[in-house]
Amino acid sequence: MNPIYRGPWRVDPVVRDGVSRNQMHVAVATLAGAIAAALDAAGAPSPASIGLILSDDAELAGLNRAHLGLEGTTDVLSFPLLPPETFPPHAGDPDRGPGLLPGDAAGFRGPPGRRIHLGDIVVSVERAAEQAAAGRGGQTGDVRWSTADELRLLVTHGALHICGWDHAEPAEESAMRSLEQRLLAGSQSAATRAGRGPARLISGRRRHRRRPEDDGPSRARRSESGACRAYPRNTGR
User: Fold this and answer.
1) Global pTM?
2) Coil, strand or helix: which one is 53?
3) Which of 38, 155, 171, 172 has the smallest number of Cβ neighbours within 10 A?
4) For 121-138, how does the pLDDT look when each residue is reduced to its tens digit (9 = 90+)?
5) Which residues lie below 8 Å from residue 2, measured CB to CB, with a gap of 6+?
């Protein structure tokens, strides 16, 4: 697919063979807009690009096994390329490291004037559709809504992880969930104006808990059950 530009952001989408637009029930451009809104809200450095791979359970299961050593699939994984200190501080982030200093290798973004690549988000459309239909969607894993709404949540969630957001600590989890809800409400308003009708907002109890594997330089990811697992920072493409 061709790149999708939204303001200073370029979203590079890839739709795997076997993933149909009818299965997604949402335009890829709409998902790109949700990602762009999350990058704006997180204060990501710009101009920048970000990858979006729309795939299936089999690929996500392979990534889960290769990078986490876990069996089974999951709904979204994020591969950030920049350290969290590259992004502005946000509420509830007590374990943030010191800011980068000029010349720090971790802060190298390429030649001046070139577009930065922030990382890549991989989503299982198959898993999103099943979760939405079975009432296992939303932030809390107990929401029944459309596949389109589940995908908008997943790409928003993945984009915030790219930008250094996490939910291992209760305070940061609360801040991240609140930001996700504001972003989704904004995209719902746009959908209503476009004549697609409003969707139900995320509701239900929180199910995320901190675990030992969440310690250290890692990123939390949503699992198949709606809980979170630590996902080690990936420094390659």
Assistant:
1) 0.78
2) strand
3) 171
4) 999 999 999 999 999 999
5) none
Cα dihedral sign, 181-187-190-194: negative
Tokens 């450095």 locate to 45
What burial class does residue 15 get, using C-beta atoms within 10 Å of its C-beta: 0-12 exposed, 13-18 middle, 19+ buried? Answer: middle
Spatial separation of the C-alpha atoms in residues 179 and 145, rounded to whole Å: 19
In this structure, what DSSP letter does residue 141 have?
A: T
Number of other residues whose CB lies within 10 A of the CB of residue 89: 11
Beta bridge partners of 120: 51, 79
Tokens of 28: 């890829």
What pLDDT does residue 168 have? 79
Q: Is 137 exposed, middle or buried (0-12, 13-18, 19+ CB in 10 A)?
A: buried
Burial of 111 (0-12, 13-18, 19+ CB in 10 A): exposed
Residue 26 per-residue DSSP state = S
Q: Which of 89, 224, 76 is nearest to 157 (CA)?
A: 76
* Run of H or E residues at 214: none
pLDDT by residue (tens digit) across 206-228? 233 223 233 333 333 333 333 33
